[in-house]
């Protein structure tokens, strides 16, 4: 664009770029000196992978598998740019081991002109890595573009990074555990809103969400990536699992909502998991600060508002932005 070319040419260049690169990722769980639950093709929002591999002691087999797939997109002997992306929860130690193993193999088939290794696009704390190969044969200007000076604060490419003053950088403080000094929230369920009813409601809601998985995915395909149902059902199933294992506090709503928040952040994945986690953390504060009150419909209404306020605060969104917050805000008026 800075060279004065038209929008159509920029668009065409981008389309050609996509045809000349390949990307594939995988997730795993490190257990001692072994890699378990290796899932290749896992989506950035937690969508199931297309291949699984048996537990292994190193990355060798994984690297060979990935490169066989990437060779279908980028022919051997090409000059390439290599990007190794941390999906969020992989330690620097394991990233270094993987990069060494990958480079040993890549250099046997390609001429590597640039290497980028770091966290460029993550999915919260998902333990995994993605690999991208870009064929420089597509355009002689690719390296020039990659080395361009940039002023985007989060951009890691280019010769120059923009360093903003501390006052211009937004920070998010850690959300503390909202409990009283005794360790147990003082708000408790009444007989009307007892543990049995709480269990029934949680079960009904989670089972309903799981049953709507395919329908929600279909709706999401119209304007998104078609994974909303899968993401939400994964979170709902995780909550059900904890409920059935008797690990949820059905007596104190502040504890219960915090537990749900932690489950969604850990198991739901994607941006939705983070946002719903914030929502339940914010809602729990109403009950944690409720003194010796019994749980009432009015407190639940306040909790809904507090949860919505928390999303608005950290996601920098408001009613009318056509986000998930819109229907939640409408719920305050019901």
TrEMBL record:
The keyword Thylakoid does not apply. GO terms for biological process: glycerol catabolic process. One of its GO terms (molecular function) is ATP binding. Signal peptide: none annotated. This is Triokinase/FMN cyclase. It catalyses: dihydroxyacetone + ATP = dihydroxyacetone phosphate + ADP + H(+); D-glyceraldehyde + ATP = D-glyceraldehyde 3-phosphate + ADP + H(+); FAD = riboflavin cyclic-4',5'-phosphate + AMP + H(+). It comes from Culex pipiens. Residues 1-155 form the DhaK domain. InterPro entries: DhaK_dom, DhaL_dom, DhaL_dom_sf, Dihydroxyacetone_Kinase.
């Amino acid at each position: 664009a800075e060279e004065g070319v038209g929008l159509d040419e920029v668009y065409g260049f981008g389309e050609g770029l996509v045809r000349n690169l390949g990307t594939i990722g995988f997730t795993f769980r490190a257990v001692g000196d072994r890699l378990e639950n290796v899932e290749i093709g896992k989506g950035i929002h937690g969508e199931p992978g297309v291949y699984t591999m048996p537990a292994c002691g190193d990355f060798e087999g994984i690297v060979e598998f990935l490169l066989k797939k990437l060779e279908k997109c980028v022919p051997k002997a090409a000059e390439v740019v290599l990007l190794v992306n941390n999906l969020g929860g992989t330690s620097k130690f394991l990233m270094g081991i993987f990069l060494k193993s990958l480079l040993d193999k890549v250099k046997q088939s390609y001429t590597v002109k640039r290497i980028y290794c770091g966290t460029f696009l993550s999915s919260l704390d998902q333990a995994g890595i993605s690999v991208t190969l870009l064929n420089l044969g597509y355009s002689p200007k690719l390296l020039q573009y990659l080395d361009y000076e940039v002023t985007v604060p989060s951009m890691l490419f280019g010769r120059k990074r923009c360093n903003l003053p501390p006052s211009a950088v937004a920070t998010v403080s850690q959300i503390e555990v909202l409990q009283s000094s005794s360790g147990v929230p003082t708000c408790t369920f009444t007989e009307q809103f007892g543990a049995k009813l709480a269990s029934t409601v949680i079960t009904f809601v989670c089972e309903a969400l799981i049953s709507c998985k395919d329908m929600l995915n279909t709706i999401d395909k119209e304007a998104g990536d078609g994974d909303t149902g899968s993401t939400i059902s994964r979170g709902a199933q995780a909550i059900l699992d904890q409920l059935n294992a008797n690990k949820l506090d059905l007596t104190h709503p502040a504890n219960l909502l915090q537990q749900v928040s932690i489950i969604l952040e850990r198991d739901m994945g994607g941006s939705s998991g983070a946002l719903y986690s914030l929502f339940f953390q914010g809602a729990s504060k109403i009950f944690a600060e409720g003194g010796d009150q019994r749980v009432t419909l009015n407190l639940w209404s306040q909790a809904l508002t507090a949860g919505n306020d928390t999303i608005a605060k950290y996601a920098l969104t408001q009613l009318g932005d056509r986000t998930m917050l819109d229907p939640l805000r409408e719920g305050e008026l019901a």
